[in-house]
Each structure stands twice: as C-alpha cells, then as structure tokens.
Amino acid sequence: MAAQKVLYDAIVIGAGIQGCFTAYHLAKHKKRVLLLEQFFLPHSRGSSHGQSRIIRRAYPEDFYTQMMHECYQIWAQLEQEAGTQLHRQTGLLMLGMKENPELKTIQATLSRQGVEHQYLPSEDLKQRFPNIRLAGGEVGLLDESGGVLYADKTLRVLQDAIRQLGGTVCDGEKVIEIKPVLSVMVGTTSQSYQTKSLIITAGPWTNRLLRPLGLELPLQTLLVNVCYWREKVPGSHGVSQGFPCFLGLGLAPHHIYGLPSREYPGLVKVCYHHGNNADPEERDCPTAFSDIQDVQILSHFVRGHLPDLEPEPAIMERCMYTMVS
C-alpha cells in the first residue's frame, strides 16, 4: 500500500529572509511546515544574500518606528536561542541639508517615539566621525540604535532552527505548479506536496507563481549594483574604529547608504538605493548589466563625503529589490 502523503499546515515558497522567518515562526507555533527554495542553499540569486544589512528605528513614518521596537526584541530572542551574535550596534548616521524635509520628519518621529538620537552640526559630526566630510549646509542625525544585521549568518541560523523545531527545508526544488482545491497542491521539479495554507515569499518570482492562478501583484523588480570601495588606510572604516552605518538623504535623486567594512577586508559597502527594471531569470545575461549612472553618482558622493576611500569601486556585485510599483 502506498504511503499516505503528508498534509502540511503551511508551505512557504522562497527561503530568503522573509520566508525563513515565516517558516521559523510557524514551526515555533507547532505547525507542520515545509520551506521550499528553487536554488541550492546558500545562493546569491535573490535579495537576502551577502553578509550585512542595516537595521534602524529611524523612519519618517511613526508606524515603522513603532514596529521596530518589536523587531529588535525578535532579533535579540533569536540571538539568545541560537547562542550567536546576529546584530552589531553601530548607530545609523543620516546625512542631509539642514532644511531637508525628510531629515526633519525623521527627527520629529524619533522624538515622538522616544528613540535615542543626536542632532550633529558639522563641527560635532567631524569630531565624532572624522572619516566623514560634510558639504556646506549639511548636518547629521544619529539614530543610536541603528546597526548591522549579519544577513547570511541569520539565514543559516533560521534554517537550522526550522529543522530543529520539526520543520522541513527543501532546496533545489523549483515550484512549477500550484493547484488550489480542497487543499493546495504544490508541484516542484522533484515532487508534489499538499498543504492547508500556502505562503509565497518569492520576491522577484512572485508574479510568475501567481499568474497561472489569474492573480498579479503590482510588483517591480530592480537590479541594484552593490559597490565596495577600497580604504586608503586599511581598517579605518570598521566597526571597531567607530564607523557607523549611514544614509544620505536628498544628496542624490535616491538614497545613498553605506555600512562599516566587513564583507571584504579593507573595503566599505556604499550603494545607491535604486536600480534598473530586471527580469530575475535574465539578471546575469550580458545584456542585463545595470546602467553605470548610479556608480557615477556614488563616485561623486564618495569623493566628496568619504575622502579616505578610493573614489572608484573595487568590487561590484548585484542584488534584486522587489518593490511595489
């Protein structure tokens, strides 16, 4: 007699940070959960790879700042459960003109929500962060709670936790069919599964999964250049030297952000928070290379604001953002 197929409480498609955290919480609540990933883990094809991401309480909107209070608690709890550090507080320094509306809105939000922060005029900022140079009229706003999340390390911790909690993680299985009947049938390149609930956290691939069901979300996939810039003095922009995460507001058409040196010895990540429309299946085709204009914007910023970095990127990688269009 053939074995009866497992009926999962939930299947999660996509093992990036959203999918991993979703499956982790389901498993913690004693749900029978399956996490499916089309690529073999770990991989650099989506949006969650790499060693570092920024975490902050500094947002223009009150509800995001309020939400981050719970987020920090969840990160601390995960660190405690895993027995390993997944977060490093560095502060998040926002740079902009003194009258920049977004900067003023963020400062007001931080004040209303009781988040520790500092307003730094040019001279104060120069003393606190000597590696950062401001142009005339620019100021700094420091969210003391901002910092770095260890992204790839977190994915491994979550995937291990899902398994330890009784969940299943299957990589190298691309979903090719979804049939919602009494339960939901999910067919992959390897086999089919049955589930009571289906959760899609597939980022750029979301609409490819939804279209056969007659659904489509207003999503836009951007291919972003992730640039690393060489220190003129190795080690001078690390966390141990007090170098913060930073966010440039109103200094270019879109935000510029950066993190202390970590991924590559002697290199600092500084990126432009925008990119070109991309098809996730063609992101590495020779014809898919992003416009170099964003790199020129970054070079101008580095030359003016980070004089102790070489003004041309030493390494360029890629990441995909999935935005609401």
From TrEMBL:
It holds the Pfam family DAO. It comes from the Eukaryota. Residues 9-309 form the FAD dependent oxidoreductase domain. PROSITE patterns: PROKAR_LIPOPROTEIN. Its cofactor is FAD. Keywords: FAD, Flavoprotein, Oxidoreductase. Belongs to the MSOX/MTOX family. PANTHER family: PEROXISOMAL SARCOSINE OXIDASE. NCBIfam families: soxA_mon (TIGR01377). This is Peroxisomal sarcosine oxidase isoform X2. It comes from Ceratotherium simum simum (Southern white rhinoceros).
